[in-house]
Automatic annotation (TrEMBL):
UniProt GO molecular function: methyltransferase activity
Keywords, sorted A to Z: Methyltransferase, Transferase
InterPro entries in alphabetical order: EgtD_Methyltrsf_superfamily, MeTrfase_dom, MeTrfase_EgtD-like, SAM-dependent_MTases_sf
UniProt domain Histidine-specific methyltransferase SAM-dependent: residue ranges: 18-322
Gene3D superfamilies, alphabetized: Vaccinia Virus protein VP39
Biological processes per GO annotation: methylation
Protein's name in the database: L-histidine N(Alpha)-methyltransferase
Provenance organism: Pedobacter yonginense
Listed Pfam families: Methyltransf_33
Amino acid sequence: MSTITTETTTTNKTQFLEETLIGLKSEPKFMQSKYFYDEKGDYIFQQIMNMEEYYLTDAEMDILSNQTAQLAKVITAPGDPFDLIELGAGDATKSVHLLKALIEQKHDFTYFPIDISEHVIADLEENLPLKLPTLNLQGLNGDYFAMLKRATEISSRRKVMLFMGANIGNMNVDEARDFCIDLRNLLSKGDMLIVGFDLKKNPQQILAAYDDEAGITSSFNLNLLQRINRELEGDFDLDGFEHYASYDPETGACKSYLISLKNQEVKIGQKERISFAANEYIFMEISQKYSLKEIEQLAKSSGFNVLTHFSDAKGYFVDAVWTL
Ligand code: AVJ
């Protein structure tokens, strides 16, 4: 059962180059945050999750470790086998709690972790069976929708989708709605979607999580320039760019940018040259925050029914349970 399904590496590299150039030739310039997660990016993201300022991980862990029984109950029915598909599984430290509870309750299910990082899926395939020997596991490495389609081809059982970790925050509200509509179109009546949202809260607290003193978030962003240097023969001067984060309490948008510190030209591959003016920015990432009301609106506008939600003791984070 444990064979990784992977998109070919050449396709990934061509797509990385194409999408990088589209972003850097746009006005204003942008990059896609899905490319943060190469092996070094995965490692830096682990460090982010361990930071004092990055409250999100602890908050969702509080939900998954203390309300697993209730969550397991909401997503299962006696004698009803299902597939548990996780988008952006990461190291699955949170989902492991749920997997464990489902196994203990003797539910018949297969776990399909999907992740854009090849390294992440390989790690899961190696480590999860050690922790949970009886788990039915099939790792899928690639883009969410390509791999989700693959999962629906492999099995036709009822689907429970997990999209945790506030990964939905990497889309703005309109993109999130379109994304949820696309998910809904791949799901059927009775299927479920569990989505993790970071809630609007004190703006200082949010900003600190994305602009830490130690500069870990800064190195997370700069690593994408390094990745372009490594994989796409770029020559970014990392000292020529500086991390800048902002949070707007009105819209709930937390954004990060890399600011060019001088007029400079950067080479990518053999023939591409990109110019940066002093103080020009590259928009790197959005981490959208929601109110409970906005979460319900998102469910409705994308055609889901709200079943319930679970929140942590501090009220920082919500795992919403939607159904079709
Ligand atoms: C993995 C998308 C949830 O937006 O909070 C953390 C990524 N970026 N610090 C987030 C991230 C900067 C993270 N997500």
